[in-house]
Amino acid sequence: MHTQTDICIVGDGAIGKVAALGFAQAGLKVTLLRPTRAAGAKPASDEWDVRVYAVNHTAHALLSSVKVWDALDMSRVAPVDAMAVEGDGAAAGKLLFDAYGARVGTLAWIVEDSNLNQALDAALKFASNVQIVSGRAMAIATDEKAAHVTLEDGNTLSAELLVGADGGQSWVRAQCEIGFDYRAYGQRAIVTNFHCEKSHHGVAHQWFSAQEGIVALLPLPDNRVSLVWSAPDALADTLLTESMDALAQRLAAYAQPALGKLRPLQPEVVKSFPLALIRPHAITAPRVALIGDAAHVLHPLAGHGMNLGFGDVESLLQLVANRGEHRDCGDARMLARYARSRKEDILLMQFTTDVLARLFGTDFEPVRLVRNLGLNLVNRLPVLKRTLIGHALGKSL
Fold this sequence. Notes:
The protein is an alpha+beta fold.
């Protein structure tokens, strides 16, 4: 069987699904290729997902435009009204961002992966221009008119534009022979959820420690918090073998002054993800565009990997919509514009997160003093502070 559409998207994550809805909303015919997965037990609807995202204003606008934001279960979405960042040591530096100072209603929103994907899946069921295909892709070929994906069952998907939204280990990127630079951080993100004794007041807390990595506690509804601990590999191994109560005790030194005692949410779930920096040498190839983690993988300390991916989608949607009457969706000039449009944002976020990860990963005392002074200095410079907040929000202030 041969399927011909305007756009073919490879990937089953939120970034690919949002792109599919956006292209369909623009009147284009879309094929969404998702891998075939064995049926597994679904978590109970009242369980709290340990995988969460800090959705900024750019992502919020995009999700609203494809009619997904209002379909979220808003009782499970928590606004971030402020962010408190602290260094380590006796003279720890501190930096506070707040929505009032940024002149916005909220800095971001914490959304569970499951909540977001359930809303996206529901929207895709009603998207008449989207055809969802399950299967394993085996090869990609391109010609002057289309990109062609051959599936394991022999079927073929053809489209003017092929979009790789298949994650950091992107098969599409590999098939296009796009090289990449890879560097492991020697850390893993430990994620789980807790109930906190005191109200978090919508504040996202982040602590930098040269010995223990980066600890973030993000607000969830009703005095719940989501832990994202970027821990050195050796410490991560220990954390994963300890009980949740022992993990809560470890966190007490960071959390107790502001949040009080932490209590594990039931059922207890802890997951981990290896952290690395991945820089593809290109985000386009003939009739191919990469988005999301296929185009860039960052350290999660800024919480904007997903938002950067939504920025990819927004840019690609706009450029395809404005490609010109006589150009197809995979036009080479349009793809070149896409690559240029994303270059600055991607490089800036990669550079910033990488430098911060290195800076706060050293225990060299002079460096520790300088970084703590830097945090305090930025906290006292309104113009610089507003610029940083603007980048975080995805908008100019």
